Amino acid sequence: MPGVLEGQQLGHVDPLIPGEQHAEVKVDQRTAGRFAIASGAVTIVAAVVLVIFFLVEAPGLVESGDVDRITVFGSTNDALIAVALLLLIPVAIFIARSEEPGRLSRVAGLLGLAGLGMGTVFMVTTAIRVIDYGTNSFLIGVAFAMVGTWLLTLNMTAGAKAVVSRGSRWAGIFAGLGFLLIGAFGAIAGPSAMADPTSLMSYPILVALLGAGTAGLHLATPVWAILTGRRWLAADGS
Known about the structure:
Number of helices: 8
Low-confidence stretches: 1-26
Mean pLDDT: 82
Distance between the termini: 12 Å
Number of strands: 0
Structural class: mainly alpha
Radius of gyration: 18 Å
């Protein structure tokens, strides 16, 4: 019966992948697909808000050096990303439970779940500035590195075709790289550098890492989420 996947196979699996078509799925596919699409839509809105932030608020923020100041568009973007990450948690649960115990992709799925949870919390604390920006950004980098590892493992392993389409896999790989680049930026820059935007601008490599990572998060992630969600809904007959 469409929409009820308890103990059933994931629809439209690749018959060339041994064992994948027999994986038990214990989370509703239709619900996971809708959460994925919702997350992608929220991320697109966040991307638009981010562009407005860079055009309107970022110059003054860099000039003042007060990164702990709450700004309308900057904080809104942070809050939207928190919502987008939160919406991906049911997606990660759905994928993790469809994997066989002990597989690398399932271990990565648990890591991704932890990263999504941490990322949600620390994006909220960034939005309302309850922790100093430098420390908060570093913690977000750790969480995003975990999410990036999950996305790369999910979309690059042989069994990925059983869960995501070929087109969305490439978007997922770029999204994973984006999350990892933000994590690398946080690890290299450290809390003190991230708290001083004026000083940070003098390191082109760090700025490039942050820029590429931010682009991957805001552009590739929604493509992956929406394509994946639509595939699940189509396979479910929705």
